[in-house]
Amino acid sequence: MKKQKHIRTQLTLALVGLSCMVLATVMAAFNIAVRSYIRSRVSTQLYEVTQNISDDRRAGEHGPKGDMRFDDHPDRVTGAEYSAAVLTEDGSLKMVLHGNPAVADELSHYVTSHGISVGTKSKVISLELGTYAISVLPDPTETDCRLLVYADVTSIMAFSQRVNLILLFVVLAAVVISVLLSRHFSTAFAKPVQTLSGFASEIGSGKLEQRELSFRNAEFQQLADSMNKMAGDLNEAKQKQEIFFQNVSHELRTPLTSIRGNAEGIVYGVIEPQKAGEIILSESDRLSGMVEDILYLSRIGKGKPNQSEEEIDLRELLSLCVSEQRTEAEKKDLHFEFDFDEDPVMLKIREQDAQRLYGNLISNAVRYAETKICLSCHQSGGKAIVRIADDGPGVSEEDLPRIFERFYKGKDGKHGIGLSIAQSVTEAYHGSLRAWNEGGAVFEAVFPLS
Fold first, then answer.
1. How does pLDDT run across 196-245, given as a tens digit for each residue?
2. Residue 433 has what pLDDT?
3. Is the pLDDT of residue 427 over 60?
4. Residues of the chain with CATH 3.30.565.10
5. What is the CATH T-level fold of the domain 218-300, as seen in this structure?
């Protein structure tokens, strides 16, 4: 596994490295610029001075030597002073034309000891007396002599060294500042991360209480808000799960208790076997239907099933669901009224899911209706709209907001799963299901057709 580094270490290395790289680049660029300037500017000036000296030397055969023009080439930028001397063929000093004799003598020894040949132009050398740029050319007046022209560049080289020293101190200061900044920024980054990491650990361990977190960075604040929302959603889901299991236990216990009581009655001979058997069968059917509904609710709660969907005519499906409920409706002398479009209302949905949805809604209407149930099925605005209304007492204002909750039973309800299944099916297919009272209970399921 790759070794991990702390944010503080990474920021420190990044800032120090960046500072050193930038300043080292500046230092290198400055030194290259200085040396390039010396080579170009001083070389040009040396050439011009050499030409003047050569001209003056030639004129010196018929005029005074003092006419040589060393002051015609001032260099205010480099501060260089140009001088010249005549060397013998073996490199020893013969005559100083201009400048300090001691410097000329030292340069002559350097030329001799280092074997600098005639024709050398603008070579920078360092002596104890200073730094000089020199040119060695043939003497135009004496064929066995050399002409040494040189310029003192000590000041500009010293300036370059001072700048390098300053840049070195700047680098050290930048390193110190980078370390301090990295500590500041790493703390600013690491502290929120550690806080959010601790919050995530609490959520992972089951502590789902929301926390009031405030950060200066918008990204951290957004993450904190998202985690709080997640904690709230998980807490709500946990509470619903606890209520679900409590309700399941209660709903399953009732038929099981009835089955057990009648079975014991048969065993001990205190209940007529025929009557007890009918109760056991009835409660078994109720228990089986409840288990089937719970399993179906669990599957549909994970989203749309993987089985293929098909285009079905909702008018035909509603007629099929009505026929399944007709026996119960006839027991209560209920009749159905239909308001369907003449053209097919086609919806892409699994037939089993559609039967669960509309079958539960119609079954609920049969349970509460007094004389009739009205069904309408229309296609409008790119949507399939199915409405099921009864003329019963309607849903109480207290129950209306909660009728789609799992295991929530209103008055005369069975086990509180049917409407929850209807809601889950509708959401799985991106539809909407709502209920209200209008002379009785009205349920409306709307699905997009595209």
1. 888 888 888 888 888 888 888 788 888 888 888 888 888 877 877 776 67
2. 92
3. yes
4. 310-448
5. Helix Hairpins (1.10.287)
CATH 3.30.450 residue ranges for the chain = 7-161
**How many angstroms separate the CA atoms of 393 and 402, rounded?**
17
50 C-beta neighbours (distance < 10 Å), count: 20
Find, among 363, 282, 371, the residue nearest to 325 by Cα.
363
Longest Cα separation, the chain:
159
The segment(s) of the chain belonging to CATH 1.10.287.130 are 218-300
272's enclosing H/E stretch is none
CATH topology of domain 310-448: Heat Shock Protein 90 (3.30.565)
Q: How many C-beta neighbours within 10 Å does residue 309 have? A: 15
Task: State whether residue 275 is helix, strand or coil.
Answer: helix
Query: Which token pair is 138?
Result: 């043939």
Q: Which of 255-267 are b and which e, b meaning 16 or more Cβ less than 10 Å from the residue's Cβ?
A: beebbeebeebbe
CA angle 285, 291, 293 (to 5 degrees): 100
CATH of domain 7-161: 3.30.450
> Which pLDDT value is given to residue 68?
47
Are 67 and 58 a contacting pair, CB within 8 Å? no
Task: Specify the DSSP class assigned to residue 392.
Answer: S
Whole-angstrom distance, CA of residue 276 vs CA of residue 294:
27
Q: Which amino acid is at 101?
A: P
